[in-house]
């Protein structure tokens, strides 16, 4: 099985991004948990200090808190104390000594204080503080596992969205290569064959001018394919800056450029403007000029001698401009209208490229300008392409 290297690279990039997102989120949660644990331990330490200070201040006259026990040299030992109090450590005059010890299965904070020449000891049972810390640690572990799973899943989803433009760029690159190889193969083959025939004939006898005309026609077709491919790459890039474009002027220029070819084929071609026409739209002049050129090329190639082509401009409403390129050529079945704009579709009549890459690029450019294009045809009667753009 052949594995697409682009797809493999995209999957690897997706896994890398997802793992990095998971690691970052996990570290953030871990840091937040460490801060929460430190705050809890610090608060518990301060609470133990307050309980010890309260017990020492009140002495035997007050009942200490339930987990705090006061032991004095006079023999006062709380009845609830679960162990025999150890001997008091040496305490400097007016000072204190604090330590933690494991006694009777629990952790006790012990503070010995010099109290008027006597050493008083305060025992604080930390079983509840220890339980709180254990519960917090358990909660942090569970939260960390949940966050890890969620971050992996969300990272995988976000990574898919992040690399989607890259995948689209790779797809467009492959499409461009396919377009180039597909569209250039046929004209290059014809040019090569004609050049070989001319070379053979030139060695034997003068070459008829018709052969040179065919060679020139082939180079012209090849140039059109190259222009289409270049336009395809532009259509795949970010939208360029737009400027006001007068569609009527572009239509007249396109018709003038095709006038000689139309005359050779005895096809009448003209431009018509509706009264009071407002035809300025935001766009890229070169791209829109290529659109009109491609439509006229198809119309001329599919219109027999004696036919006609009309380019009509009008305002269907206050917000739009419409251009219709109508011919009296071979036409097409209306069921093929949508297929006209698909890449690599080919028609069986006419000399133009009504089907194929040309109209696919026309569709891309028109929709890239926020416009629409529609095709209508009747076999043997003709075809009409209608472009609609929003006015500037």
TrEMBL record:
InterPro entries: HATPase_C_sf (IPR036890), HATPase_dom (IPR003594), His_kinase_dom (IPR005467), HisK_dim/P_dom (IPR003661), HisK_dim/P_sf (IPR036097), Sig_transdc_His_kin-like_C (IPR004358), TCS_sensor_his_kinase (IPR050428). It catalyses: ATP + protein L-histidine = ADP + protein N-phospho-L-histidine. Keywords: Kinase, Membrane, Phosphoprotein, Transferase, Transmembrane, Transmembrane helix, Two-component regulatory system. It is found in: Cell membrane. It holds the Pfam family HATPase_c. GO terms for molecular function: phosphorelay sensor kinase activity. The chain crosses the membrane at residues 21-40, 136-163. Its EC number is 2.7.13.3. Gene3D superfamilies: 1.10.287.130, Histidine kinase-like ATPase, C-terminal domain. Residues 179-392 form the Histidine kinase domain. SMART domains: HATPase_c (SM00387), HisKA (SM00388). GO terms for cellular component: plasma membrane. It is an enzyme of class 2 (transferase). PANTHER family: SENSOR HISTIDINE KINASE TRCS, SENSOR HISTIDINE KINASE YKOH. This is histidine kinase. It comes from Amycolatopsis carbonis.
């Amino acid at each position: 099985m052949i594995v697409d290297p682009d797809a493999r690279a995209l999957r690897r990039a997706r896994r890398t991004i997802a793992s990095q997102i998971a690691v970052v989120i996990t570290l953030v949660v871990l840091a937040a948990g460490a801060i929460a644990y430190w705050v809890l331990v610090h608060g518990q330490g301060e609470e133990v200090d307050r309980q010890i200070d309260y017990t020492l201040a009140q002495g035997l006259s007050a009942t200490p808190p339930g987990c705090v026990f006061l032991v004095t040299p006079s023999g006062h030992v709380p009845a609830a104390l679960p162990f025999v109090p150890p001997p008091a450590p040496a305490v400097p005059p007016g000072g204190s000594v604090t330590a933690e010890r494991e006694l009777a299965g629990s952790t006790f904070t012990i503070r010995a204080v010099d109290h008027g020449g006597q050493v008083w000891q305060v025992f604080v049972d930390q079983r509840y503080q220890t339980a709180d810390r254990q519960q917090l640690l358990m909660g942090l572990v569970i939260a960390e596992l949940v966050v890890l799973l969620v971050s992996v899943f969300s990272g995988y989803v976000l990574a898919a969205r992040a690399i989607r433009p890259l995948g689209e760029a790779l797809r467009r690159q492959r499409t461009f290569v396919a377009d180039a190889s597909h569209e250039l193969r046929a004209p290059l083959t014809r040019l090569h064959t004609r050049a070989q025939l001319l070379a053979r004939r030139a060695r034997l006898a003068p070459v008829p001018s018709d052969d040179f005309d065919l060679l020139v026609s082939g180079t012209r077709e090849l140039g059109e394919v190259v222009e289409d491919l270049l336009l395809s790459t532009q259509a795949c890039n970010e939208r360029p800056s737009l400027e006001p474009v007068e569609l009527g002027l572009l239509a007249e220029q396109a018709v003038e450029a095709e006038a000689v070819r139309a005359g050779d084929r005895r096809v009448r071609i003209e431009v018509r403007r509706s009264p009071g026409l407002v035809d300025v739209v935001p766009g890229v002049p070169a791209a829109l000029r290529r659109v009109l050129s491609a439509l006229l090329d198809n119309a001329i190639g599919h219109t027999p001698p004696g036919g006609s082509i009309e380019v009509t401009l009008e305002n269907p409403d206050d917000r739009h401009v419409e251009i219709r390129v109508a011919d009296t050529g071979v036409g097409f079945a209306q069921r093929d209208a949508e297929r006209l704009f698909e890449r690599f579709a080919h028609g069986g009549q006419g000399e133009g490229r009504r089907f194929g890459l040309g109209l696919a690029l026309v569709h891309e450019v028109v929709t890239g300008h926020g416009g629409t294009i529609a095709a209508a045809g009747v076999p043997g009667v003709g075809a009409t392409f209608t472009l609609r753009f929003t006015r500037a």
